Amino acid sequence: MQSSPDTAMRHSTIEASDEQDASRATGGAPLRRSQDMRSSETRARLMQATLDMLNSHGYARASLADIARSAGVTRGALHHHFAGKDDLVAQSVGLMLEQATAEIELLALDVSRGRLTLDGFVDRLWQMFSGALFMITLEHVTEARHNTWLKAQLIEPVRQFHASLNGIWQRFFRARGVDAAIASDALNATLCLMRGMGVQSVLRDDPRYYASLIAHWKQQLHALLDGP
Questions:
Q1: Which residues of 201-216 are buried (b: 16+ CB within 10 A; e: fewer)?
Q2: Which of 51, 71, 172, 174 is most open to solvent, judged by the fewest CB atoms within 10 Å of its CB?
Q3: Regarding the domain delimited by 5-81, which CATH topology (the fold level of the hierarchy) does it fall under?
């Protein structure tokens, strides 16, 4: 449950008052920078602990008390930085997707320099969809079905993530003269396959099975690239 605006305002007022007192006592900027660094580190620990808890325990079982304990902070510190569980999850997942998007942008450089093939990119996608990123996604997407606030917070970072994927994908197909709309359909079909295998992997631990499906799909993609 989200805390009220009044509660958030009281936290902000307390923080500002403490910073002003400390600043006057020490001359200002150096302590303020140190406080900002500590605040950023605390937020980072809380968000990483949240992602770890979503992956290991799931949304429903990820309690704020356990997240705070894992991050090594008090419940009060957690509520000082985040309004509640939904806020913490939304910001943590948003950060995860930003980092994944940045990783994809680095892959784009490898593509442009000829160091990453289409097959290699498909393999990298499967690493994403068979690992923590996708398992965390399962948790927040399931919760977002009935949580309109959380859903609203996640739409834009998810859109940016998929836009980055599409940018790389189009590079592979543009060089072969494949229409952009067809290339986009091929990407979405690939992602649907990855999501389906990711969900199936929860109950079926069978690497050879998934490798066979991926090998088959690579053949379809190359047929699309190379034409009749």
A1: beeeeeeeebeebbee
A2: 174
A3: Arc Repressor Mutant, subunit A (1.10.10)
Query: What CATH code would you report for 85-226?
Result: 1.10.357
Identify whether the C-beta of residue 178 lies closer than 8 Å to the C-beta of residue 224.
yes
Q: Could you give the C-alpha distances from 2 to 85, 88, 91, 146, in angstroms and in order?
A: 7, 10, 13, 16
The structural domains of the chain, with segments of one domain joined by +, span 5-81, 85-226
- Give the Cα separation of 170 and 224 in Å (integer): 13
pLDDT tens digits along 7-16: 343 344 334 4
Residues 6+ apart with CB under 8 A from 35: 19, 22
Token pair of 102 as six digits: 């940045």
Q: How far apart are CA 152 and CA 118, in angstroms?
A: 33
Amino acid letter, 122? V
Other Cβ atoms closer than 10 A to 3: 14
| DSSP assignment letter at 113 | T
